[in-house]
Amino acid sequence: MGTALPAPAALPLSGTASRAQEVHRLRSEISRMQRRRSESPFLPLDPALEGLLPDQGLRVGSAYSLSPSPSLLGALLAAPSQKGSWCAIIGMPTIGLEAMSDLGVELERLVLVPDPGPRWLTVATALSEVIPLIAVHPRSRVADADISRLNARLRDRGCTLLVTAPWPQSEATIRVEDTEWHGLGSGWGLLSDRTVTLRASGRRFESGRRVRVQMPTSLGRVDAAPTPLRTVQPVPLSPATMPKMPIPAASATAEQSPARWAVAG
Length: 265
What we know:
By secondary structure, the protein is an alpha/beta fold. 27% of the residues lie in helices and 25% in strands. The protein contains six helices and twelve strands. The longest helix is centred in the first third of the chain and has 18 residues, at 16-33. The model is unreliable at 1-5 and 261-265 (pLDDT under 50).
């Protein structure tokens, strides 16, 4: 039996004027419900991702470059949305809302702009005024000057940007590596979960950081990967090194017991 999911807010696609009016309405509504700037310098991370970044979370006012992985995107959006922050996803018409919900994203605080076309940068700039965490999939090239202006807007408004593509001046780049699916046997079974390595590198930690996580788990969430068991090799023992066990001497009672049984029997 399916579970009904609340419908996230989505911007209409008919006409530039109607889109502008809807953006203005959303800005007014979201500004009414939350403060314009965050009091914390970081947005929270899922506990399974601790250690991936040198900071306590996603740095407010910064941009991050991501692998185009819906699971990674959901894992990064989940903790902030659960703490009350609004999120937006721009330019991803095929994103799975049920999968986002399983990963922990609160759909009641999620704004979707599925297909902004070549105006994705304009939409991202407008939403950065009121939404603290925005994910965007660029559909066209953008001039360096426009990127610099958007990065300055992010710092001024306290908005964090997740870009599923290389992004100049990004705080860090987060990539999915070493993917391993579980659940399939030799011609049988079902995919149950996936274990991946997340690697983050940036200007302040060029050597990179890695964490091993299950993403998704069998329940669709993100969790720390279990520590693999190590195979312990047996230590061979030679006759010279084997301990000698003392042989107990027979007691007088044991020696007399057959005779006692004979007398009794």
